[in-house]
Every structure is written in structure tokens, then in C-alpha cells.
Amino acid sequence: MKRMLQKLMLLLAFFVVLPTVVYATPGIMKLFVAQYPDTAGSQLDSCRTCHLPAEKDCLNVYAQAVKEKSFDFKALEELDSDSDGRTNLEEIKDKQLPGSQAGEDELFVFTARMGNVTFNHEKHSLDEAYRTRGKCENCHTQATFPRKFDDNAKWQKIAHIVCKNCHKEAKTPNAPTKCKECHIKK
Ligand code: HEC
Ligand code: HEC
Ligand code: HEC
Ligand code: HEC
Ligand SMILES: [Ca+2]
Ligand SMILES: [Ca+2]
Question: What is the mean pLDDT of residues 49-74?
């Protein structure tokens, strides 16, 4: 349990607190980029491709499949590991994340009939102005959002409490409180 915790802290440090630090075990990262050279320098050229959102042993659903197939990337190309309707290969070709429903790193778009809500996770977790700096529990508790972006789940109730309340308390026009400020129709 303690080891697991240490591992989690380690990963957390790499992905959330120190995203620019290069870590010294890039082996699997290199394997991936060698398999898909077009991904070099793209958002997929990042540990996040396989390690966020961590589901089991610090691996996301794509990485679990990678491990299961003993790093034979081709064997997983036709799967849709993250259930967002696109195969792993289609996503990799488009530089989209095969193990997460987020379209871009740290940018979650909740599709809604009212208009889509775009949530900037990085700013909400790291930027002082968002009043959450480092306090993951402002949003992640047993009763609120899980640490996995899932656009297929229904978040209206929780979002209208957690997101709206803080925005109201923040008392800044930068924190939207009106329907059409959060729900943007294209
Ligand atoms: C293509 C997917 C992929 C990428 C990209 C990737 N990893 Fe991994 N990583 C894995 C898999 C799969 C395992 C588990 C290997 C095993 O258990 O045999 C793993 C294991 C690890 C572990 C060991 C965890 C443990 O259980 O001890 C660390 C640490 C780690 N990766 C860090 C990184 C870092 C840092 C990067 C970026 C430089 C990275 N990984 C990029 C797939 C990936
Ligand atoms: C202001 C609210 C907020 C704060 C603060 C916040 N998160 Fe999140 N986080 C979210 C929401 C919303 C989601 C998407 C949840 C969903 O779709 O159910 C999410 C998703 C995630 C995911 C999954 C990413 C993915 O690609 O699926 C991880 C990992 C995560 N959070 C970690 C953290 C950590 C670690 C912290 C603290 C450093 C933190 N969060 C702080 C709101 C927040
Ligand atoms: C703990 C407080 C807090 C929570 C919880 C929170 N926000 Fe915010 N949010 C802020 C603040 C403060 C700002 C304005 C920051 C500034 O002054 O630039 C903001 C700004 C925004 C903005 C506009 C600027 C941007 O970043 O795009 C959007 C959209 C937004 N939040 C969506 C959400 C959604 C959706 C949730 C729930 C999943 C949420 N927020 C949860 C504090 C919060
Ligand atoms: C702080 C941002 C925010 C504000 C303000 C806000 N919402 Fe939402 N709303 C959300 C989020 C996030 C969801 C979750 C979307 C999902 O479940 O994928 C949501 C979900 C919904 C849904 C269900 C999903 C759908 O398909 O439409 C409805 C309806 C809705 N909101 C209506 C409203 C109305 C009406 C208002 C104004 C009274 C409002 N919202 C204000 C963020 C906001
Ligand atoms: Ca997919
Ligand atoms: Ca995806």
C-alpha cells in the first residue's frame, strides 16, 4: 500500500506539479515514438499518453492493453481502449489520446445539448487565480468528480454545485456563473 502510494506521488509529481521535468526512464516512450514517428514532438510524445488517467498500477486503459499485448502496438490498433468512439490507430494518427477522452491534454470538453462546456484542468489545478492550487479535493472527492474524464457520464447535478458555487464565491467576471457563459454553442 505504501509503495503504491509512493508510486502515485511520483507520477503525480511528474504529471501535475513538474510537467516539464524529463524523467530518466524514457524507454517505453521511445518505443512508442519509434512505432509512430509522426507523433514526435506532438502531445502524444508524453508520458501522459499511457499514464493518465491512471486506472490500475498507474496505467491508463491504453497502457494496460499495451502491457497485455507485450508492447505489440500493432495488435491494439483496431481497439477503442478509451471508449470514445475512435480506434487507437485513428486517434494516434490525429495526435489524439488513445487512453483518455480528453481531446487535448488537460482540456476537457463536456458535450451538452445546452452547448459544450470547456474545462481547463491545468489552470484550475495550478493557477493561483483559480483558487484551487494543489487542492485536488475541491473537485475530487468520493461524492464529486472521479479522476477520469468521462464525457458519457452525466455531470449536470455535480457540476452545477461544484463548479457554479466556487465561481459565485470567486466574485470575478472571469469565473462564469451564467448558463451561456459556460455552455457555448458553436
Ligand atoms: C506507450 C505507453 C507508455 C508510455 C508512452 C510511457 N509509459 Fe511508463 N509504462 C508503460 C507500461 C505499459 C508500464 C508497465 C510496464 C510493466 O508493468 O511491465 C509502464 C511503467 C512505468 C513505470 C513503472 C511503474 C511501476 O510499476 O514501477 C514508470 C515509473 C513509468 N512507466 C514512467 C514513465 C515515464 C516517466 C514516461 C514518459 C517519459 C512513460 N512512462 C511513458 C507504458 C508507457
Ligand atoms: C476545479 C476542479 C478540479 C480540480 C481543482 C482538480 N480537478 Fe482533476 N478533474 C476535474 C474534472 C471535472 C475532471 C473530469 C471528471 C469527469 O469527467 O468526471 C478531472 C479529471 C482528472 C483526471 C483525469 C484526466 C483524464 O485525462 O481523464 C486526473 C488524473 C485528475 N483530474 C487529477 C487531478 C489532480 C491530481 C488534481 C490536484 C492537483 C486535480 N485533478 C484537481 C476537476 C478538477
Ligand atoms: C474552487 C474554485 C473553482 C472550481 C471548483 C471551478 N472553478 Fe472554474 N474558475 C474558477 C475561477 C476563480 C475562475 C476565474 C479565474 C481568473 O480569474 O482568471 C474560473 C474560470 C473558469 C472558466 C473561464 C476561464 C477558463 O478557464 O476557461 C470556465 C469555463 C470554468 N472556470 C469552468 C469550470 C467548470 C466547468 C468547473 C467544474 C468542472 C469549474 N470551473 C470549477 C474557480 C473554480
Ligand atoms: C460553471 C459552468 C456552468 C454553468 C454556469 C452552467 N452549467 Fe450547465 N453544465 C455544466 C457542466 C460542466 C455540465 C455537465 C455536462 C456533462 O454532463 O457532460 C452541465 C450540464 C448541464 C445540462 C445537462 C447536459 C445537456 O445535455 O445539456 C443542462 C440541461 C444544463 N447544464 C443547463 C444549464 C442551465 C440552464 C444553466 C443556467 C441556469 C447552466 N447549465 C449553467 C456547467 C455549467
Ligand atoms: Ca478511442
Ligand atoms: Ca481518446
Answer: 93
CATH number for region 107-182: 3.90.10.10
Identify the pLDDT of residue 68: 95
Q: Where are the domains of the chain?
A: 2-93, 107-182
Q: Which amino acid makes up residue 105?
A: D
Query: Which one of the ligands is nearest to 149 CA?
Result: 2
Mean pLDDT of the chain: 88
Q: Which ligand is nearest to the CA of 84?
A: 5
Residue from 81, 147, 163, 167 to probe ligand 2 pocket by mutation (most atoms less than 8 Å from CB): 147
Q: Alpha-carbon dihedral of residues 68, 98, 159, 11, nearest 10 degrees?
A: 60
By percentage, how much of the chain surpasses pLDDT 90?
73
pLDDT score for 27: 87
